[in-house]
Amino acid sequence: MNFPTPASPLKGIANVRLPAWLLPAGWPVHKGEPVTADLRFDAGKIASVMPCQPEQDDLWDAHGALALPGLTEPHAHLDKTFTIGRSRPSKPGLLAAIETMHQDRQHWTPADLHQRARRGMAWAAANGVTRLRTHIDWFDDTPPLAWTALATITQPGVTLERVALAPLSFFADADVADRIARAVALSGNHYLLGGFIHSSNWDPTAMTHLMRSASRWQLNLDLHIDEELSPVAHGLSWLAHYLSENPFSGHICCSHGCALASGSEQQAQEVLSVLAAQRVTLIALPMTNLLLQDAVTHRTPRQRGITLLKEAQTAGIPVLLGCDNVQDAFCPAGSYDPLDTLACALFALQLDNVFDQQSRLICDVAALTGEAQPGLPLASGSEASLVLFPGSDSLTWPLNSAARLVFHHGRLTHQRTWNQELSHES
Ligand SMILES: [Zn+2]
C-alpha cells in the first residue's frame, strides 16, 4: 500500500470498509459484509459517502482497509497517569490505589502534570482519538492545581474535557456543594461535575446536594458510581429513583456501575429501565475493573466486576468503553488505545460482531455528550476525521491492528506503518 503524503489534503478515500452500524439503511452487502465505500472530502468535511465504484482515480485507494470515525476515549485520569514507576501500591484493590495516589501527589507540580498529561494526549492522538474526557481529582472545595494546569493542554485534533472528581463527602454541606459546582461552571470550556460514589462514603443527603448544585449551575455529570461488588451499593438505584421524581436538564454519564452485576436481575432491570428513559449513558471500564475488583493477593479473582453492558444495550441505554487509569497505582498497564480496551471487553464480556456493531462502543460521541448529532459520523457534512487500520480485517480486528492512518479534516496527521512479514524459511 502506498500511503498518502501528510502535507496535502486528500480529495477523498476510495475503497474503505466501514462498519455496518455507520452505514445508511439499504447499503449493499456482498457475501454477508457491507461493500466498501468511496468517501469524498470538501474543505475538510465529508462531501459524499457512496458504495465503491471502479476507477475513482482522483481518490486515494485504501484497498479495502477497515476504517472508523475519530475514536472516543470517554474516561481517563491524566492527572495520575504515568506515575506507576514512582508510586506502586503495596496491596491490591481500589482503596489501596487511592491511598497510593494521595502519596504521589507530592510530585504533582505544573511541569510534572503537563509532561505526563501531554504524553497521554499524544499517545491517544496517534491512536486516532479525537475526543478525550479526563477526570481530575479534587481534594477540597477549590479547584486543584491539575484542574487549571490541564486546562491549558492542547493536542491538535483532540477535544479535551475535564470532569471534577470529588468524593461524595464534599457534597454533604449544601454550601460547599454549591461552591464546587460554581467553580466548575466558571472553568472555561469543556468541563463537567463528577463525584466518587461508593458504599464507603454513601450519603443520600450529599447526593441530593450534588444533583441540585449541578442543576443550579447547568452542569452535565459524569459519576464514578458503584465501583464495587457489593450487591447493596446504593448509587445507581438511588440515582434512578431520584431521576424518576426530579427533572434534570443536563446529561449524565455513569462510569463503572460494577455493582449492577452483583445484585439480582430484577434489581438491575428496574435501574436500567429508568436510566434508559432518562437517556443516561453507561461507561464500562473493563480493564481497571478486572484488575481492581475481587482483588486479593495470591488468589485468583472469581468475579469480573464489569457492569451489565449487554443488558444496558438491550434496554436502549447509550454505552461506551473507556480505558480508565493508565500506568498508575490503579492500573500499571495501558496504552490510550481504545482498540486495546475493546479487545479486553471482547473476551471479558463475550462480545460478538465486534467490528460491524461493537466498534461503536469506542467512537460514539453522541453517547458521551448527550447532544443530538445531525447524522451518523462520517455522513455528508461531518468532519473528514477518520482512522484506517491497514493490514487488518473484520475478523482479526481489534487484535493485531496497531497499524494506523489517522486523518483530520481530510489530511493525514499520524501514521504507524505495518510491514508484511518476511518469511526466512528456505
Ligand atoms: Zn476512573
TrEMBL record:
It comes from the Bacteria. One of its GO terms (molecular function) is isoguanine deaminase activity. GO terms for biological process: cytosine catabolic process. Signal peptide: none annotated. PANTHER family: CYTOSINE DEAMINASE. This is Cytosine deaminase.
